[in-house]
Amino acid sequence: MGRIFSGVQPTGNLHLGNYLGAIRNWVRLQDEFDDCLFCVVDLHAVTVWQDPVELQANTREVCAAMIAAGIDPAKNVIFNQSRNSAHAELAWIFNCVARMGWLNRMTQFKEKAGKNRENASVGLFAYPNLMAADILAYRGTHVPVGDDQKQHLELARDIAQKFNNDFGVDFFPVVEPLIFGEATRVMSLKDGSKKMSKSDPSDQSRITLTDDADAFAKKGRKARTDPLPLPDDPKDLADRPEAANLLGIYAALADRPLAEVLTQHGGGQFSGFKQDLADLMVAKLQPITGEMRRLGDDPGYIDGVLAEGAERARALSDPVMDRVFDIVGFLRG
Ligand code: TRP
Asked: How far is the CA of 270 from the centre of ligand 1 (A)?
């Protein structure tokens, strides 16, 4: 059946984009696949500087969000990446397999490094190699990701193939991306051309998983729109980014196709629709944020989940790494 691996960064300010684009989709996969690993990627986080105290808090927050959203820690492996040294070890081997030219083409590096590439960390450049190692340390086969991670997954496939070629083995599987449909890209509530982001200076631009019902309602009502009524046809949203974003969020939360939402709401005014959206956010998100707050008060429980998850993760990666070391020619005990 295959094995799922996915990761999310412990960046703090978890928002609706993280939930709809990643975590929510994982909840569904746990029923379809026997083996699912969901990893809080703290090693990836430190490719840009993180405050150590905040990193710990954010790691717990992401773990709490997964559980609150419905990922069962008994059935799935939930852990933080640094706890299993296989990730860093395999990433080093992949640093020696991947080519500079491949990494130079990665758009996320170019975006994150900005103009001052000379000053970016070496880790940020090698980020995709670590991501390939995350998946392949478990010989993962299916990886649910947002659209923006597609290029990294193609690189993971290239690395797996080159490793197999270089050593004349058929060891690493071909990794399949699972890209989810509507609302994998949730945009800012203030500017439909920008992704919803934890680093936007305006808190009004995002719905976070620490917001309460009042904040959902207020942000929903105040979200930017255009003066036109809602269209009847999804095609008419092409040049209306704010309208498209709110409708996409609504469709995703309601778990209904966009066209169906427009059949119901098309022709109406945004003021009424935004009230409905606010109600929907309260109904769908409040149970999750409430559970997150409850879990937040019980760090001992969260730490226990992560520790146990790491142990199970190591049990899965140990035999893979034994084989890898053998294939590469490292003498081990
Ligand atoms: N790079 C991913 C992101 O920023 C997170 C990630 C790290 C990941 N390792 C992974 C996702 C492995 C899928 C598989 O969203």
From this structure: 35
CA angle 275, 233, 188 (to 5 degrees): 50
Catalytic residue among 162, 190, 198, 284: 198
**What's residue 182's pLDDT?**
54
CA distance 65 to 287: 11
Let me know if 150 is a catalytic residue.
no
> What is the predicted pLDDT for the residue at 21?
85
Confidence (pLDDT) at 184: 62
Domains within the chain, CATH numbers bracketed: 4-184+298-328 (3.40.50.620), 211-294 (1.10.240.10)
Residue 230 near ligand 1, beta carbon < 6 Å: no
Q: Is 211 in the pocket of ligand 1 (CB under 6 A)?
A: no
pTM passes above 0.85: yes
**Sheet with 176-179, side-by-side order of all strands:** 77-80, 35-40, 3-8, 142-145, 176-179
Q: List, for the chain, all residue ranges whose pLDDT scores fall below the cut of 70.
A: 181-184
